[in-house]
Amino acid sequence: MLLGGGMTACAYEDDGDTQPAAAGPSHPLAPSLPAKDPGVLGVEASNYAELHQRLARTPGSVLLADTGPADGPGIGFSKAATVASAGPYTVTAACVGTPRAQIFLSQDTKGGTEHMVFEVDCSRAQSQIVQLQKGYVSAQLTRPDPTGAWTGAVAGIKITAQ
Predict the structure, then answer these.
(1) Which of 63, 94, 80, 91 is nearest to 140 (CA)?
(2) Which residues does 7 contact at the CB level (< 8 Å), separation at least 6?
(3) DSSP-assigned letters across all residues of 84-122
(4) pTM > 0.85
């Protein structure tokens, strides 16, 4: 009621011409990431090439594979897959351009969510056999130092069936 009374007190002026509404997005635009330095992009591309070589050495049928930047703007990755058959799987993690990276693997189970943390030594790829249950499994790369410099470091994970 008060809103209605307040609205009638507002003045409205019209010059008689109807103006068409401007076309454009009806939602706010997402903030953009800062521009990447071309020199660091070159280092990052070289690091990705090395990372893909390290992860490619893992035999078996791929259940989940992902890579991403280990520092700088747009850091990390997060990916999920469905485990169709419970059993042993090989998890291979690697990183290039940084001394270490941390990758989380989690799976929802009947008793809750199981988490595994892989502290990856970037001098080589590391493989470990894990028992996965039927259902979803997810992998996530996080940055331990969110304010550190962008160097072009990268990390990745590959989960294969035995």
Answers:
(1) 80
(2) none
(3) -S-EEEEEEEEEESSSEEEEEEEEEETTEEEEEEEEEET
(4) no
Which tokens in the block code for residue 96?
Answer: 């290039």
| Residue whose tokens read 């280092």 | 43
Q: Which residues pair with 94 in a beta bridge?
A: 156
Residue with the two structure tokens 């929802």: 108
Query: The tokens of 63 are what?
Result: 């259940």
Low-confidence ranges of the chain (pLDDT < 70): 1-36, 144, 146
* pLDDT tens digits, 53-88: 999 999 999 999 999 999 887 788 999 999 999 999
DSSP per-residue string spanning the chain:
-HHHHHHHTS-----SPPPPPPP--SSPPPPPPPPPPHHHHHHHHHHHHHHHHHHHT--SEEEEEEEEESSSTT--EEEEEEE-S-EEEEEEEEEESSSEEEEEEEEEETTEEEEEEEEEETTS-EEEEEEE-SEEEEEEEE-S-TTSPP---EEEEEEEE-
